[in-house]
Structure formats: C-alpha cells, structure tokens
Amino acid sequence: MKILQITNRKGGVGKTTIACHAAWYFGESKRVLFVELDTQRNASRTLQPHKSRVVASDLLNGSVEIPGLPGPGIKVISADDGLKSVSIDPARHMVQMRRNLEAAGANYEVCILDTAPSADTLNIGPLLFASHVLAPIELNVTVRAGSKTFLVPKAKSSDEAMKLVQDHLGKAVVRVGLTQYPVG
Question: Maximum CA pair distance of the chain?
C-alpha cells in the first residue's frame, strides 16, 4: 500500500482539499484508506458517507482491525479527541500507527494521511513511514521572504528518513509543487 501524507505546518494552503480530491480520484479505481489526523475534522465532514467505525486514536493505542473494501472506493478513519493524548508517548504511538496501517495494506492500495497545520507528532511522525509526501505551499511574499524551500530526496530506509527529518526540522521541506499562486 502506498501511503501519501499531505502535510504543512501552515494552515490554509489546501491540505484537506487536496487530500479529499486525491481520495475521490484514487477511489474511482483503487481501494483508498483515508486517515484524518487533524482534530478540526473538516475532511471527516466532507467524506462523511465513507466513515468507518474505527477512529484515528484507535490506530495509536493498540492493534486494530481496519475493515477492507470489496472493490474501489474510500474508507475514512476520522479524527477524534483521543488524538490529543499522542504527546504522552509519541514514539509508541507512531510505531503502533505504522503497524496498523501496514496490516491494512493487504486490503487497500492507497492510504492518504491528512494532517493538521502544526509541527507536532501527528504531523512529523508519519514522515518516517509515508511512501510519498506532498507539502502544499502558497506562493506569496511572506512565504518567499520568511522561509527557504528545500527539495529533499525520498528516503530509502527508516534511518535515512529519520536523518532527513532531523536535518530539515523547522524548515519548509517540499517534495511536490504549488497549490496556490497569486493572480495578477
């Protein structure tokens, strides 16, 4: 299963919009597992008809069976208030999430992770196991003046992924293009 993490610690750059559209697009021909890690729950409301009985905090707190789909479509694991406890033991929670998603891999071709606009465990942790990362950015004067953008290679191992995260923590790391461009 390919895991696509949509991430940026800035809000309003189109993460949830891109994540939902990617789910609809891939869901036409593939079995898609959509995991919302943003407690604002905008994606969960948008994708409500595809909601699972499993919630996001279940993925962090022990082994959980994620029901598969018989054919192409979308299954949504909604964000919930239990996500607020992740800061208690981030390493254990990320390892458990990875195990649960790996176990679900037999029943899905694509997993989309929609993250919150923050630099917390739920945003940084999945970078260690996501196979693909999309960091939407808005091209404006503030973004260009306030940060540098680094293009980084895809990690070939979990150790290399950890090193990339450590080397680039706090920097605007971008693997794929723009989502918003000022007109005029």
Answer: 51
